[in-house]
Each structure stands twice: as structure tokens, then as C-alpha cells.
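Students often ask why inverse folding is considered easier than folding. One informal answer: many sequences map to the same fold, so there is more than one right answer. In these notes we will look at a single instance of the problem. The structure comes first.
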């Protein structure tokens, strides 16, 4: 018999979350070996019917596929008393319960922390929200773009007077997922030491705000105003030249540079003798404009060779197709590949960490709706007759069903 040596092997997580932040956090726990049981409505979680980029699959769309590997699915109607009992029975066997219901919904379902800790005092209960469990914004929609806009970060880059540009990824969701994953591990460590479970709350607004530890401290402690200039500098709190610059055939990114050395490489004699710390702040727009004008006349490859040889921090600006084929990404094994029973061969980002003795791995791809309902209920001691009765009543789904949004 093979023993699972992964770090969270033997732990059970009940994942009652939807969309991205909650499922992503639960997936990370599954990647480390936890038995993640995804609780879905009888027809499946909302994300099964909404695909980013319109990327549909055969029976599972790409969005759901990417956020729900290493999970088993139990499909149950939480509007019924029998369905609530199924989840309560699951909670009694669990180490972690994770939900991102709108504030107040968990209590209405009888799945709030105070109720569930009566069933399982050692439970680590994670509640995720957009703005917090209470307060003036508790009922606002916790959507990624809205949180990015409120975080202040959009106004740290670009030109003054031009619209702010959102991040190119679902940043608020991803950062909140990482915060929840981190919090679960810390709470489990506390439980190992004390035997105590506890309530853990994570919200998207705080996650994005605390991510900007340095930037916001420059404002709140250093008193430096967040002022964009007339040129698209990549950050208001970093000296020029710093940003993305057009070349004759594309773009490159340029970080901190000794101005004299940079001037020699790009043929800008006015940079000679300038102090990077002094003039990099006082002449930000001028330095950016002159650097941009010089870089526009040669190719990205030519500039990268010259800049890197001079010890200047520079790098390519990639699209996704470039990233996937990059030699360092390939060397790192950043992407993983596996075969899914309905979606075929899958290539997707893997794990952001490596362990010498307990590596993360993919045991199963994203499940079909209710694919493991009968298996999981049997583990809880439900008889075949009871499982069939619950299925006949529409309380649970015990077989894979095609994803059909109609």
C-alpha cells in the first residue's frame, strides 16, 4: 500500500466556496495532499457555467478546470434539511471548512462558525468576503476589478490625467486566495500545538491593502504624495527611468540603472554625471522621455544584449505564448501536464513551491458535478439505500452530469 507523504495528507477540507478566491485557496490545500471535498449545488457550482475568455471544454470549462484540481465533488441541495445534514456529517469529519458566502448566508444555512464548532470544536473555519464580515461595505459585491480600483494601486502607475489600468490578472482574487491558504496553514499549526480550532476571516480589501506594505507605508509614514507624472512611469514611488519602453519591434522593461552607464549604452550624453537617486526623482519625466526616445531605434533583442552586458536591469515583455516557451520556465517545471478523463491532455500552471521530501502533485483533475457523492457519503456510513433515496428526492447528485447552462 502506497503511503501519501504529502504535507497535508490525512487532513480533510470542506470547500463550500465559489468563483475564484475560495476554490483557488482550497486547490492549494489539495495540491499539498489534503482531501478536499467540494460541496456544490445539484447542478454544479456557478463557475462551471462561466468561462473566462469563453474557454469552454468538453464537460468542464477551463476556468473551473484550473481552480478545482485535487478535489472530490459532492453535489447536495443545501436548501433542504436533508442536504444540510449531509454537510453537517461531513463537517464532523473535517479539519477545515472554507466558505465565501455573502455575509449572513452561512448563518441562514446553519453553516456559520458558532453552529459548526458545536459539531467539531477543533475545526478551522475560514470565512472569505469582499470587504469584511461587517461594516458599511459588507453587502457590496466583492468583485476583483472593484477591489483593485478601491485598493489605490491603480493610481501608482501610468500618466497623470489618463485612466488607471487594472492588473492583467485577477489580482484581488489571487492575493486573497494566497492569504487564505497561508491562514489555514497557520491555524492548523496552532491546532497541532494546542488542539484548538478557530474562526479565520479573510477579506479581499485587506488582502490587497496589506500586499502594498511598502507603498502604503511610504504614504502613511514617509508622507510622500502618490503623484503620477506626464510620462507613463511604472510606479510613482520608484525613481526613473523605470517602466516599459517601446523598441523598434516590441517592448522591454527597464529597472534601476546607473544613469551614466545607461547614457553610455543608449547614446544619451546628457545622463553623464547625473546622480541616480537625486535626479531620478527630481527629473523623472525628463529621464523617462529621453530613454524612451533612444530605445525606439533598435530591436528588443539588441537592447537586451547591450543593457544586460552593461549590468543594467532589463528584461523582455512577454505575452503568454512567450512565457510558456521560455527556457527558464521550462527548466523550473512551472507548468504541469496531465491527462483528464473528459478534457484530454492538460497543460496548466503547477505549484509555486517545492519541497525536497513532500512534493506537491496532481492526483486528480477537476471533478464532474457530484462525481464523488456516492463515494463520500459511503465513507460517512450512509447505506446504498439511503444514498439512492437522497438521490431520488433530488437532495444529492450521485452521478456525473453534463455541464449545461440551459
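Output (designed amino acids):
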Amino acid at each position: 500500500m502506497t503511503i501519501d507523504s504529502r504535507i497535508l495528507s490525512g487532513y480533510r477540507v470542506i470547500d463550500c466556496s465559489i468563483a475564484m478566491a475560495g476554490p483557488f485557496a482550497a486547490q492549494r490545500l489539495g495540491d499539498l495532499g489534503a482531501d478536499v471535498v467540494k460541496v456544490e449545488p445539484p447542478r454544479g457550482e456557478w463557475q462551471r457555467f462561466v468561462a473566462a475568455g469563453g474557454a469552454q471544454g468538453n464537460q468542464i470549462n477551463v476556468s473551473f478546470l484550473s481552480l478545482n484540481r485535487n478535489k472530490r465533488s459532492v453535489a447536495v441541495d443545501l436548501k433542504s434539511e436533508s442536504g444540510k445534514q449531509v454537510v453537517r456529517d461531513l463537517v464532523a469529519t473535517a479539519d477545515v471548512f472554507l466558505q465565501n458566502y455573502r455575509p449572513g448566508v452561512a448563518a441562514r444555512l446553519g453553516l456559520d462558525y458558532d453552529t459548526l464548532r458545536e459539531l467539531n470544536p477543533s475545526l478551522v473555519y475560514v470565512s472569505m468576503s469582499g470587504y469584511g464580515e461587517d461594516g458599511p461595505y459588507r453587502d457590496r459585491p466583492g468583485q476583483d476589478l472593484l477591489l483593485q480600483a478601491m485598493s489605490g494601486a491603480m493610481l501608482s502607475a501610468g500618466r497623470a490625467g489618463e485612466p488607471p489600468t487594472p492588473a492583467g490578472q485577477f489580482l484581488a482574487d489571487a492575493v486573497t486566495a494566497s492569504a487564505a491558504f497561508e491562514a489555514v496553514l497557520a491555524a492548523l499549526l496552532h491546532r497541532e500545538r494546542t488542539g484548538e480550532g478557530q474562526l479565520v476571516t479573510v477579506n479581499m480589501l485587506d488582502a490587497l491593502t496589506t500586499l502594498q506594505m511598502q507603498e502604503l507605508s511610504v504614504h502613511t509614514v514617509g508622507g510622500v504624495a502618490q503623484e503620477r507624472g506626464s510620462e507613463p512611469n511604472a510606479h510613482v514611488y520608484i525613481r526613473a527611468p523605470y517602466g516599459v519602453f517601446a523598441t523598434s519591434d516590441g517592448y522591454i522593461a527597464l529597472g534601476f540603472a546607473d544613469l551614466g552607464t545607461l547614457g553610455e549604452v543608449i547614446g544619451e550624453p546628457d545622463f553623464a554625471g547625473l546622480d541616480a537617486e537625486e535626479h531620478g526623482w527630481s527629473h523623472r519625466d525628463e529621464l523617462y522621455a529621453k530613454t524612451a526616445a533612444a530605445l525606439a531605434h533598435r530591436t528588443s533583442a539588441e537592447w537586451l544584449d547591450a543593457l544586460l552586458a552593461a549590468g543594467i536591469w532589463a528584461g523582455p515583455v512577454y505575452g503568454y505564448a512567450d512565457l510558456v516557451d521560455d527556457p527558464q520556465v521550462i527548466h523550473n517545471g512551472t507548468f504541469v501536464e496531465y491527462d483528464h478523463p473528459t478534457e484530454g491532455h492538460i497543460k496548466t500552471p503547477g505549484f509555486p513551491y517545492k519541497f525536497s521530501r513532500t512534493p506537491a502533485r496532481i492526483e486528480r483533475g477537476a471533478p464532474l458535478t457530484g462525481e464523488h457523492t456516492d463515494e463520500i457519503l459511503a465513507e460517512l456510513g450512509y447505506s446504498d439505500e439511503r444514498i439512492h433515496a437522497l438521490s431520488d428526492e433530488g437532495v444529492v447528485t450521485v452521478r456525473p452530469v453534463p455541464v449545461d447552462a440551459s
